[in-house]
Amino acid sequence: MKKNLFFFLFFTYNLFSQNSGIQFLKFNLDARTNAMGNVSTAIGSTSINANSNPALLSNDKNDIVEFAYKNSLIDTKTSTIATKTNWNNFSFGILFNSTTISEIEIREIAGNLQGTFDAKYVLGNFMISYLFENNFSFGISNKIVYEKIFVDDATGFAFDFGVLKNFENFSIGISLNNFGRMNSLKNKSTEFPKFTKVGILIPYEISKNFKTNFSIDEMFLLKEKNLYLHSGIEVLYNDIIAFRTGFQNGYEVQKHFSFGCGVNYQNIVFNYAFIQNNFGFDNENAISITYIFQ
Prior knowledge:
Blueprint: E1 3-4, H1 5-14, H2 31-35, H3 47-50, E2 63-72, E3 76-87, E4 90-107, E5 113-131, E6 136-149, E7 152-166, E8 171-182, E9 184-185, E10 188-189, E11 195-205, E12 210-221, E13 226-237, E14 241-249, E15 254-265, E16 268-277, E17 284-293
């Protein structure tokens, strides 16, 4: 589907009523947490989860490799590959992501089509987390971002900081995200979407075969001073099959609810998510596959 420049600018700058660019850095890349309303601060243990809170790397000691793909608004395609390993109390993660908005139309005002171009973003994230006593972990990550819009491009870097505390019956996570700067894109630098997140995870065992995970995040955008609520729940059967739903509050284009499912087979985990959008924008679909080395 071709888009004109108006829709591209709408996506990049106005879609979520904020002024900061590089909006994909605010949203999760994996299907599990996309299905759970984009919660990301106290749940998960993979490198893709740690893209939001690097302290999550210490949540388990399995080495993993994972792949995720998401097809979202106005033909925006996002592909991610990541891996994680552990050494003593340290956990290390590496993530690479490519996000492309394709076939953006170039037009003069009330003029004929002049051509098309793609907007491209590339992310590299290098993460480390340390597990202290009493199930407390601290993590830090360095993001390197490259963007190209039409013929102009720029690079930049940012840091994330996160903590996670696992109690007996719940977990609490806190993260500070995207503190850095981009080089100039033509005449002006794109701004990182700086925000803080606080999240809680409450697991509950319903019976021998069924258990749930309920999670809530609050995200506060520092420049815009906007507060958003994310919440999600998953129901697991024998840790093999999972059903998920989530709720988001405050976004203009995305509807409130999301849904998804997952299957664990031996060392392979497959997850799917569906997010419905407003204003005639395409609905979003996400998949992720994780291989666990045991």
